[in-house]
Amino acid sequence: MAHRLQIRLLTWDVKDTLLRLRHPVGEEYATKARAHGLEVEPASLRQAFSQAYRAQSLRFPNYGLSHGLTSRRWWLDVVLQTFYLAGVRDARAVAPIADQLYEDFSKPCSWQVLEGAEATLRECRKRGLRLAVISNFDRRLEDILMGLGLREHFDFVLTSEAAGWPKPDPRIFQEALRLAQVEPAVAAHIGDSYPCDFKGARAVGMHSFLVVGPEPLDAAVKDSVSQEFLLPSLSHLLPALDHLELSPPEL
Fold first, then answer.
1. CB-based contacts of 161: which residues, under 8 Å, 6+ apart?
2. What domains lie within the chain, and their CATH numbers?
3. Average pLDDT of the chain?
4. 78, 56 contact by CB (below 8 A)
């Protein structure tokens, strides 16, 4: 059967799709605090980080760029607030820890490539597919990808800091399509977030695939995403693309 569809561009989320932190946030924060003479439980820091990150994202979306912040200042404030919520009220004691954490998370050695990611990217390129990144990351991403040997696979890396809009804002997907000079019907996005990646890409007419982990899917997501667009691992992507290209067009 002849292909009814020819995907030309694949765009990729990064964190928890291609990469993840080598050590959990709570452990990393606790280790750095200990090196500066502070003892804080990793579990407390993990919970405090989730709360601080969520509050900062709501108050100053996309690294607070529209409020005059830099992404570095945004992250330093998240660290300060994390330790405050975990019971460390001395901001001067936390400031050098925040600086160290920002620098450490800028280094490729703090990240690890997820299983199957590099092999999948290579196979996609062998097929002649163009690859790009669409990520709600900051300016450190280029160097991280370079250091991990992944940057060479991508035509371009579009971060929300550079674009000015975070996923699922349609404008960041539209900017990626403009840079690639392709129509949304021949592009597909791969990511692990249902609202940001799967729905965000589909809202502009792209195809999308949702990377899922071993945990049970949320019922609403399970009811909303057809099985053929769920990827238990990245090794499932190429068969899923084959299925998509051989499927009748949606009406």
1. 62, 63, 65, 71, 137, 138, 139
2. 9-18+114-246 (3.40.50.1000), 21-110 (1.10.150.720)
3. 95
4. yes
